[in-house]
Amino acid sequence: MRPVYLDNNATTRVDPRVVEAMLPFFTEQFGNASSMHSFGSEVGTSLKAARQQIQALLGAAHDHELIFTSGGTESDNAAILSALDTQTGRDEIITSAVEHPAILSLCEYLEKSRGVTVHVIPVDARGLLDIEAYRKALGPKTAVVSMMWANNETGTLFPVEQLAELAHEVGALFHTDAVQAVGKIPIDLKSNTIDMLSLSGHKLHGPKGIGALYVRKGVRFRPLVRGGHQERGRRAGTENTPSIIGLGKAAELALAHMEEEQTRIRALRDRLESGLVQQIGRCFVTGDTRNRLPNTCNIAFEYIEGEAILLLMNKAGIAASSGSACTSGSLEPSHVMRAMKVPYTAAHGSIRFSFSRENDGEDVDRVLDVVPGIIEKLRTLSPFWRKDGEKPAEFNPTYN
Amino acid sequence: MWDYSEKVQEYFYNPKNAGVLENADGVGDVGAISCGDALRLMIKVDPETEIITDARFQTFGCGSAIASSSALTELIIGKTITEALAITNQDIADFLGGLPPEKMHCSVMGYEALHAAVANYRGEEWSDDHEEGALVCKCFGIDEAMIERTIRGNSLTNVEDITHYTKAGGGCNTCVETLEEILARTNAAMVEEGVLDAKAAFVIGARPTPDLKARKEAARPTPAPAPKDSPLAPGAPAPKLTTLQRIRLIEQAIEELRPYLRQDGGDCELVDVDGNTVMVKLTGACIGCQAASVTLQGVQARLMEKVGEPLRVIPVASAH
User: Per CATH, is B211-320 categorized as 3.30.300.130?
Assistant: First the structure.
C-alpha cells in the first residue's frame, strides 16, 4: 500500500520538476559564476533567473534583496546577528515563546555570551501573541524583533505585518522566520514593512541545504559568512548553483499552486480534522483554528503518549509527527505546547498532520480509517484512561 | 527514529499481559502523566509459596515504556517474590535485546514498579530515593542517591569512574557538570568523615575533565623522551653531520611519522632545510586543523631526537 506522508512541515518531497531543473547544473553548466569565461557567465544568468522566481513568490521589490544561504537556520542566525551589529547602541531582542530553536537557542546563547537582553513574549492558549506584552517590551534599546510568520507545530499565524509596524515605531528592525509560511500563504513584501525574512527550500518541495534571507533594500546588513564577494559580499562562498536553481523552480511551482493550497489542501485538512475529532472523544485541536496555515492540523489526544501513536501509525503506513517528549529524547513535551499551556494530560499526546499538494482524499480516508483504532488501543493500555462518564482514574505513585 | 530492537517492537506492537488485573494482591504505581510516562503494575501472589502467579500492567508512555512493562510481567510471572526482586533494570533491558540509551529509564521504571507492587502486597510503605526531578543522568536514568552511594562505596574520585561504575554521564554527556558537583560535594563530606585522604578528593576546577578529544590526543604517538645517552642529553657532544646526512635523517624521521598523520587524514612533506630551520608542508586534513600546531611540535620533537640538534620546524603555505 502506498504510504501516507503527512509530515510536510518537517520536510517535503523534492518535486520531480525541481530535480529536472537542477540536473544540468551538476554536469553541464557546472561553472563558477565568478569565472571570466562562458562556463561562468551562463551560470550567472541562471542564478539571476532563480532569484527572480523567489522574488515573485515573496512579492519583493528587487531581486537583489535576496541572499542565498544554506537554509532557514542560517538565515535566522544571519538576520539576528546582523541586526545586533548594525543597530548601534541597541542590545535588546524581542521574540516569542513559540519560535523555532534556530531563533530561541541563538537568543539564549547571545544572552549568555554577549549580555544581550532577550524579551520572550508569551502566547495564549490558542497560540496567539500577547500584543500588550509585546508593546511593553518594545523600547529605545530594541535592536531587532524576530517573530515567526507561521508556527511549525500548530500552523498558527502571527500578524507579522502589524508587528513590524510596531517595531518600527521604536526604531527596531523586524525579522520574520517565514520558513513554514512561504509557499503556503500569499506573501507580498512590497505591501508591508518587514525588514528581513527567512525561508527554506526543503519546506516547499525544493532541495535541502538551501534557503534565502530577504533583506529589504536600505536595511544595513553585516554578513555572517565572510570570505568572498558572492551575494554582493553579503554571503561569501561559491554559489550552490544546482540548489539555488532548484529553490527557484520550487518557488515558481509554489506560486503556481498557491490557489490550490488555499482551497483543495485546506479542504483535505479540514476533513481529516473534523473526522478525527468527531470519531475520537477526549481530543482537541491546538492552535488558532481560525487563523492558521491551510495545510497544518495539530490534535492533542488525552491520556496517551505521542511516540506510541506515531509508531503504530508508522506501522500502518502513515507518517506524521508529535510534540511529545519521547520522540525527541528530552523529558519535556514541546516548548510550543508548553507555551500554550496545553495540559500535560494532552501535551504528550499531540500529533501534527501536515499536508502538501501531493496529498489527496485517499490519504485522509486512510487516516480516518486507521487512527481511531490506534488511539483506542493505546487508551486501553493507559492507566489514566476512563471512558466519559466513568470515575476519573486514580493513580497513586509512591513518589512525586 | 529510535533504533528499537525487534524484541522491543514485538512487545510494543503486541504487548503481553496488558490491561487490568481484577482483585490484584499488589499494585505498584510509578511515574506521572506530566513526566511523559507512568506504569501501574498489578500482581497476584500465592500466599503459601509467595509465587507471583499473574501480573498485568497499564502504561502511559512511549513504545519502549510499553515494551519494558510487558517484558517485566513476563520476567516475574512464576517467580517467587524474592526471585523477582533480584531482577534489575538491566535484566529488563537485556530481555528486550537492549534499549536505546535515552530509553533506559523505561527499564528503571519497571524495576521501581515491581518494588512498589511488592511493598503494596506486603502492606509496607515503599519509599523510593529516586525522585523524578533528581535524575542526574537522563540517558541512563541514574539519580543522585545512586551516584552518591557508588562514589562512597568505591571511594571514587574522578568523573570518569562514575561513568564506569554507574553509566551516568556516558550518554549525551550533558550532566558532566552536575556529576562534578556531586563528586566534589561527596568527596568533601568523605574527607570530613575521615574516610578519604584530602589530597585524593576531587575539587572542581583543580583538574581538567578529560574529554574524548584530549584522550584521542593522548593516544597519538608522541616522541619518547630522549634517552640518557642520546645526543640531546645535556652535556653530550653533538656529532657533526654533513648537510646531506642531516637532510636524510630529517626525511627519514618525517617518513616514520607519516603513517600516523595519514591515519588522521593528513600528511606532511619536507620542503626545505635552512640551517636549523626545517620547512614542511602540511597537507590533507592537517590544513586548517586546530591541532596542526600540536602536530608540528610533535614533528619538531621527533626531528630533534633523530638529528640530535635543536631544530625549528615551521609550516609553509601550500599552494591551493
Answer: yes
